[in-house]
Design a protein that fits this description.
Length: 127
């Protein structure tokens, strides 16, 4: 794979995405890596972005169940991968998802707990 990437002139920052294309489509598909990555972002690119931004606390919604966290992450990855078709940058795409999440996030402090996780689960089921 490395030899093919070098032969095709794949830039180092695109190697993780090239590897995904190669793993999923083989050598023949990898020869059109730039087209494939123009149609959709690589999952690895979105994962790297999320790791950095999640660690920065930009997506703090309080305590969420593991199920709600998984669904939120899945939605962010899906939107990040395919949001390129709408012309949005990765940060814009994920911010849009988080705005949707915040719009369904309500708090019931009278019961001493947050409904955020339950609402995210309901919201993600509408996708």
């Amino acid at each position: 794979m490395e030899k093919l990437a070098a032969k095709l002139g794949v830039p180092s920052e695109k190697l993780p995405g090239f590897a995904e294309v190669y793993d999923n489509l083989g050598e023949r598909g990898a020869k059109k890596w730039d087209k494939h990555l123009g149609d959709a972002r690589a999952v690895s690119e979105v994962d790297d972005w999320l790791k950095h931004n999640m660690n920065e606390g930009n997506f703090d919604l309080g305590e969420l169940s593991d199920s709600a966290k998984r669904r939120l992450r899945d939605r962010l990855v899906f939107s990040g991968v395919y949001g390129i078709k709408s012309g949005l940058q990765l940060d814009e795409t994920c911010a849009k998802v988080m705005d949707e999440v915040r719009s369904v996030a309500t708090f019931d402090w009278s019961n001493g707990y947050s409904q955020v996780g339950q609402n995210i689960l309901k919201w993600s089921n509408t996708m």
